[in-house]
Amino acid sequence: MEKILISACLLGDKCTYNLKDNYRREVEELKKRFLLVPFCPEVEGGLPTPRKPSEQKGSKVIMEDGTDVTRFFNDGAQKALKVCKFHGIRIAILKEKSPSCGTHFVYNGTFSHTIVDGKGVTARLLESYGISCYSEDQISWLLASMDAKESAEKERLAAIKAAKEERAALLKQKEEEEARILEAKKEKAVKAKKDFKKKPFKKNFDKNGEKKSFRKSFHKDGEKKPFRKDGKSFSKGPRKNFSKGPRTYKKSKPE
Question: How much is the pTM?
């Protein structure tokens, strides 16, 4: 589960300058989807609670009584950055208008409750390191945008899965078609072989359909061979037995 840095006061911690909190109901929905890491830069930077309110004035942070507390705010911002790096945090939800956590607006430094465009010390440092900072007013929008992103990702994965299944189905259909064609060829070959065995060989029969005799009934000179009483021609007699090997002849020595 992804981790998010969040201002501790938004979770109900009484760490503001007047010992109060800035609890928001939307954080309960965040808890269901993220691991929330509470952090208060002002307290972690070394400021006590309760304390005098502080506002940014130029590059410094000044308390209402004129005390320069820039060092404490810078220390708190550096510690927040270390926490984000340690936990691999990429998103921070911070308290708007705070001199340390303001993401879009801060007080102008006159303690007259005048709001101007600007960022708190911690928000500015985190964003310079690529950490996205949102205010408490953007929690609902952030959740909705994440839902839309997740929905789009699910649709993309579903489309990829459907395309894979379609390719697999086409491949299976092609394989089945090739197997069917091969089986048909085999059946055709077997049938042709059976038909060939059943079919009479034309050369074995004469024009009248009678089976031809392949016995040689004529001599080389054209005279008809004599036949025995059973109608079979005489054979040339038994072959000589060469089991003892062929006959050899000795060559006569020249005189």
Answer: 0.62
**pLDDT one-digit tens code per residue, 109-141:** 999 999 999 999 999 999 999 999 999 999 999
Q: At 9, list the tokens.
A: 């006061």
Residue 184 CA to residue 173 CA, distance in Å, equals: 16
CB-based contact 221:214 (threshold 8 Å): no
Burial of 27 per CB tally in 10 Å (0-12, 13-18, 19+):
buried
pLDDT digits (tens, 9 = 90+) for 208-219: 656 555 555 555
DSSP SS3 for 147: helix
Q: Which residue has the tokens 């909190």?
A: 21
- Show the 3-state SS of 228-252: CCCCCECCCCCCCCCCCCCCCCCCC
